[in-house]
Description:
globular, TIM Barrel, eight-stranded parallel beta barrel, alpha/beta, 10 strands, single chain
Amino acid sequence: MIKIIAEIGINHNGDINIAKKLIDVAALAGCDYVKFQKRTPDLCVPEKQRDILRQTPWGEMKYIDYKKKIEFGTAGFAAIDKYCKSKKIKWFSSVWDLPSVDFCSEYKESTMKIPSALITNLELCKYTRERCKTLIISTGMSTEKEIEKCVEVCNPDVIMHTNSSYPSKVSELNLNYILHLREKYPKAEVGYSGHEYGLSTTMATVPMGVKWVERHITLDRWTWGSDQLASIEPQGLIKLVKGIRDIEEAMGVKGDRILFSDELEKRKSLRGV
């Protein structure tokens, strides 16, 4: 079965109660994982951006202070870990720096993801590879050579095709790249991480052979935050998961045509044999 990831990311806006509601949605929809993002803002925010003032729901503040405000620490992730276990859904994070890898390692979670923005950070890729069982990378905003180098360095278990625009234009999704990745890297599982509007293009990746599907989720697309508009709401997530599972079930097997029991009954009634 395809593994389905509901990416909460930073759509919780630093509120653990919102995070729990999003975990509820993912569990109800039947997702396999929820995913968060883990950063050390003092390392990840470029120096020139730190003091830029930004309007936020909590008032005007420096960009670095905003990033720190929405970042869960030890208490937040301990609550997430406990809540996910109670809902019987797994969780993991995209890691943005070395301390974040160490942080996530403390929770004994065996899966980590290198986000598209950082697959050229080969030190991070290698460091993460050494500290997790299942390593996922995303290919957004990367050249073929950059992807090749990342794969060479860290031998990922999963390679996600993605377009890193938020939201992505349907005309620029280039889903056929999934087939290229499957052929080029037969030892890895290939997935799709979508940022487009709608569900049909994500569902279309199922017969292309993806093993993982990821979409950002939100309680309300009009909530404040950079990723909210390119996310899907609870009803959409439920439809997406059902669509994926229905397509999986409908795919059947290759080979000679199968006459199923219901069709055999119809054959008898119309042909007499």
